[in-house]
Amino acid sequence: MAIAQALGQIMDVAQAACPPTPQLVSPLAQGTDMLAAELAVARGWRVIAPLPFGIAINIAVNIDDPAQRLAWLVRQAVTPETASLAHAMQDLAAQAHCRAFDHDDALAETLMRTGANAGALDALVADHAAAAAAIVIDASAAVVAVWDGVSPGGRGGTRHTMVQALERGRPVLWIDARAPKTGAWLTAPDDLTQVGDGDGVIDWAGFAAWCGTHGSV
Question: What is the pLDDT of residues 113-129, one digit of tens each?
Answer without folding.
Answer: 988 788 999 999 999 99
